Amino acid sequence: MNFELSEEHIMIRDAAREFAQELKAGVIDRDEEAKFPYEFVKQMGELGFMGIMTPEQYGGAGMDTLAYVLVLEELAKIDASAAVIVSAHNSLVLWGLNEYGTEEQKQKFLVPLAKGEKLGAFALSEPEAGSDASSQHTQAEDKGDHYLLNGTKNWITNGGNADIYLVIAQTNTELRHKGINVLIVEKGMPGFTIGPKENKLGIRSSDTHSLMFSDVRVPKENRIGDDGFGFKFAMKTLDGGRIGIAAQALGIAAGAYDLALAYSKERKTFGKPISNHQAIQFKLADMEVEIEAARLLTYKAAWTKDQGVPYGKEAAMAKLHASEVAMKHTVEAVQIHGGYGFVKEYHVERLMRDAKITQIYEGTSEIQRLVIAREILK
Ligand code: CAA
Ligand code: FAD
């Protein structure tokens, strides 16, 4: 067993760390104004972050899942919105296209996505189908050479800015989850409209929208995999996506910890730095232990995926633990900052707001427990 990062991993981590410093300058304004970081997304494309796990032959950086996790962790320490933009794009869109797409689909859609020229979104959730993801109401009616898509998707990350959407929809209701398909939908297809941007508690500079489909003609060649593969596709995609969200949560927790540790050495009360008070020391010790445990679970899930063996349980464990740690310790980071933690300039209040979503999306904490329990009991 080797816990050391390779030279390549250290290089990509350091590149992400350096880039994250650039993200820092406007992060408070982007959060306040819910402004999408267009310029930075372009730069992340140039750095290879927008196709980090995609093979080089399809325009990506050809790196492994651990490299992906290291990048997300560094981004999320500073800007959790930038991290989720990268995560949804890479693990929910590019991964599935590369794994199950045809050569034509890869050339047409994967290549520009992996180069960062286009942005992707993954549309599974609906107003009445979140945790209960197989209960799809969106219909993809089989019309021979095309599908006719009708319905509404909810809460779609990158929803307004994406160019390419993977949309999950029901074709054969009688077959339940075995009658679900996944279709590649392009922005601008007639009948496809994007709803207003959600006004959110956290990750405010990531855009979240509902999507409406009204008689959208989607060519048959835009279906990924065999007829009826859509639900399995979504579940397999989410196994990897959860590793990305674990890394985002880990970064949020680690970012808040870095700030709290530094502040505790500077701020003096009763004639000494607050880090000299045992109550603060114990908080810092708990943060160190629990964040490291989250890091180990997250890296292990990434490593397991790279071994080519099943990794759904590892991904769910990492996501569950890292998101709980992020929520708990961002609250503690605010506490260590006292009143200063409650204002925007000190960053920890934003990290605390950003942490909450990691317990909800890509499967709530309750759903992660359900996935883990099913695995250990089967
Ligand atoms: N890999 C492959 N196949 C899987 C699978 C997996 N991880 N999980 C389930 N399946 C298969 C099962 O084997 C079964 O197939 P068969 O009938 O052929 O045996 C089929 O899928 C149905 O499985 P279940 O009976 O277990 O399905 P279920 O209806 O009980 O649901 C669930 C299971 C885990 C709760 C699932 O609905 C789920 O993951 N819900 C949460 C949804 C979610 O995470 N949404 C995230 C949206 S994306 C997002 O949020 C993005 C973002 O924020 C950025
Ligand atoms: P519900 O499923 O209604 O759950 C409500 C509560 O009940 C939760 O606490 C849940 O844990 C609990 N619960 C439900 N079922 C069970 C059960 N069986 N056992 C125990 N407890 C249960 N979706 C996408 O498809 N693509 C995206 O890009 C995307 N991005 C998102 C971005 C944001 C900012 C948000 C808020 C959501 C996003 N989502 C996306 C949707 C997200 O995945 C869902 O919100 C999430 O899966 C929960 O679904 P729900 O909101 O319908 O809650």
Automatic annotation (TrEMBL):
<feature type="domain" description="Acyl-CoA dehydrogenase/oxidase C-terminal">
    <location>
        <begin position="230"/>
        <end position="377"/>
    </location>
</feature>
<dbReference type="Pfam" id="PF02771">
    <property type="entry name" value="Acyl-CoA_dh_N"/>
</dbReference>
<feature type="domain" description="Acyl-CoA oxidase/dehydrogenase middle">
    <location>
        <begin position="121"/>
        <end position="216"/>
    </location>
</feature>
<keyword id="KW-0274">FAD</keyword>
<dbReference type="InterPro" id="IPR013786">
    <property type="entry name" value="AcylCoA_DH/ox_N"/>
</dbReference>
<dbReference type="Pfam" id="PF00441">
    <property type="entry name" value="Acyl-CoA_dh_1"/>
</dbReference>
<dbReference type="InterPro" id="IPR009100">
    <property type="entry name" value="AcylCoA_DH/oxidase_NM_dom_sf"/>
</dbReference>
<dbReference type="InterPro" id="IPR036250">
    <property type="entry name" value="AcylCo_DH-like_C"/>
</dbReference>
<dbReference type="InterPro" id="IPR009075">
    <property type="entry name" value="AcylCo_DH/oxidase_C"/>
</dbReference>
<dbReference type="InterPro" id="IPR037069">
    <property type="entry name" value="AcylCoA_DH/ox_N_sf"/>
</dbReference>
<keyword id="KW-0285">Flavoprotein</keyword>
<dbReference type="Pfam" id="PF02770">
    <property type="entry name" value="Acyl-CoA_dh_M"/>
</dbReference>
<dbReference type="InterPro" id="IPR006091">
    <property type="entry name" value="Acyl-CoA_Oxase/DH_mid-dom"/>
</dbReference>
<protein>
    <submittedName>
        <fullName>Acyl-CoA dehydrogenase</fullName>
    </submittedName>
</protein>
<feature type="domain" description="Acyl-CoA dehydrogenase/oxidase N-terminal">
    <location>
        <begin position="6"/>
        <end position="117"/>
    </location>
</feature>
<keyword id="KW-0560">Oxidoreductase</keyword>
<comment type="similarity">
    <text>Belongs to the acyl-CoA dehydrogenase family.</text>
</comment>
<dbReference type="InterPro" id="IPR046373">
    <property type="entry name" value="Acyl-CoA_Oxase/DH_mid-dom_sf"/>
</dbReference>
<dbReference type="InterPro" id="IPR006089">
    <property type="entry name" value="Acyl-CoA_DH_CS"/>
</dbReference>
